[in-house]
Amino acid sequence: GEKVLQNDEFTRDLFRFLQLLCEGHNSDFQNFLRTQMGNTTTINVIISTVDYLLRLQESISDFYWYYSGKDIIDESGQHNFSKALAVTKQIFNSLTEYIQGPCIGNQQSLAHSRLWDAVVGFLHVFANMQMKLSQDSSQIELLKELLDLLQDMVVMLLSLLEGNVVNGTIGKQMVDTLVESSTNVEMILKFFDMFLKLKDLTSSDTFKEYDPDGKGIISKKEFQKAMEGQKQYTQSEIDFLLSCAEADENDMFNYVDFVDRFHEPAKDIGFNVAVLLTNLSEHMPNDSRLKCLLDPAGSVLNYFEPYLGRIEIMGGAKKIERVYFEISESSRTQWEKPQVKESKRQFIFDVVNEGGEQEKMELFVNFCEDTIFEMQLASQISETDSAERPDEEEEEDE
Question: The EF-hand domain covers which part of the protein (predicted)?
């Protein structure tokens, strides 16, 4: 076991060093990674990084197959797997920085490497390992590391699409890869969808009947009835979720901790997956294969649709690009407040009645600044009120 990735810390530091040298879209060093002008021998570090990533992926896949028939991963296995995940995570972060800007040359170099083989392999590992690790509380930390790695891979894929044209080569290669791994992609989406829906289930009025005092503890049988009553889960999904919940000798478990343990990672990573699929569908609008792939993703995409903000910017290539970002729940709430609605109405009235383009732009900038200030102030007041309310309730009880 000690022979596995003996130089893991040095390897992480090396790739971290390369990542930092590319920070801030340092195009000179990004291009240097690909070609060392003036040297008698030149090495494409992009390709070398992918080659190392592919070897890591093959080792991680071997690890999965070894433990796939065992109930749990032993301590030594968890330690070695964690080391491999940490190195892989750093490599994905470095690859992301190699190509951001975007650095077109590095994007093309990466797209014509064996990166897609590694992505296919990792999608298989993610799809199967997430199901296995989520069923035992002793492996939850390892599951978090695995999901963090998935997050970083998705960010890297998003960076590959940065600045690319509609129906371009990279978009086509990405669709090819996802279609080849469609079964695993569907498993990953299903995993997120199951845990995303849990929050709605446990916050519903119907569910409160099982826990009227709000203690956060119910029996697995009651939990099963609640899921069956919601009619959003198949029987196999219900069985899987029950297998992930660890109950005491009385068959009781803390459903609040259970939901928090899985919902937040599913929300964080699921959002980026939704952005990737949305972005890819805009890059490849006429690809029928992608449309078939988006059907199983419908539930996840619908969940994140209200949280998906979009702006259009002028990219480095002087082309308009769409950039997506997450709209927080508090921002959505503040946006619907009366004072903000009034500001919106006034802004529209002023824009309609003002003449020149310059005046309209000034009105828009002022509206944005004022609205952001209003929303931030309202949010702070809400937080202060909610913090004071428990103290008042305690005084009343006394």
Answer: 198-233
